[in-house]
Specification:
The structure is a single chain. This protein has 2 domains: 4-170, Ribosomal Protein S5, domain 2; 176-304, GHMP kinase, C-terminal domain (Alpha-Beta Plaits, 2-Layer Sandwich). It contains 10 helices and 13 strands. The chain has helices at 69-81, 103-116, 129-140, 148-153, 189-194, 202-221, 224-230, 237-240, 247-256, 280-292; strands spanning 4-10, 12-14, 23-26, 32-40, 44-51, 86-92, 156-158, 168-170, 176-183, 261-264, 271-276, 298-304, 311-313. It has a 5-stranded mixed sheet. Strands 2-3-7-8 form a 4-stranded antiparallel sheet, sandwiched between helices. The relative contact order is 0.19.
Amino acid sequence: MSDTVTAFAPASIGNVGVGFDMLGLALAGGAGDTVIASRSETPGIAVAEVRGLDGEIHPYLSTDPKENTASIAAQALWDAAGATGGASLKVHKGVPLQSGMGSSAASAVAAVVAVNALLDEPLAQQELLPYAIEGEKYASGGLHADNVAPSLLGGLILCPTVLLPEVVRLPTPAGVSVVLLHPELQVNTAHARRGLAKGYSMEQWLQQQGYLAGFIAACMAGNVDLIGRTLRDVVIEPQRAAAVPCFEAVKGAAMDGGALGCSLSGSGPSIFALCEERWALNLASAMEQACRALGIECQSWVSPLDAEGARLEP
């Protein structure tokens, strides 16, 4: 058993358009956070450093263990395990902040996976979910697992709050990819959640419930056509789209390019589209061009729907 371990947790797509707070999708392609955990004689979890995407010390992410999603999640696990001593974390951010790509979730997940490996009796990976959620709750201001669950477990995850800590990894149809575009903008998740309407009409509720049920059925049956008919968000997307100035142009380019559906990733500003695998690279290019035509720089990733979750690094 090593005194120092390294864990990686991938970026993720929250909501997956149709399933607000209930569906999440792991993203392959290298975007993710890395946490290095080392045993310490000092009790509790400490944060030694936080580095940004440029490899430099992050200018404002806190190393206070009570204010960092990685340490909050790791401390919850450490306390539950009754572990003695402590651990020191080095957090290397690979997911842009306030990107709609599960940045806080990736830190929390990588931390619990790393610290779990330091325990005398490590838990199974799925058992780590409640502790990762504790870190995410601090960052987003709400109890939801649509970023932490796919980042931890991989794939497309159904994770309604009423079932937690139980989640369901849904089957995904062969030959379908996800394209994620990240414009160089920021949207604060906690602020975006507070801005949502508190009530909806029965018609909206029934329509969205129908789309969600149809989307889950489509995944279970591998029905690509039905995915295209049900990947819709008539409740949350209309409220958040205006905060992302390139959204309509990028979504239009995606749908014109043959996407099955396109929506915001989490609260944005990132935008995802599902499409047949053969069109994915062309779709990514079209979405990037639409974004840059508005003077907004961006980058994109293409990923399968069954991407791996968090892992220990050699």
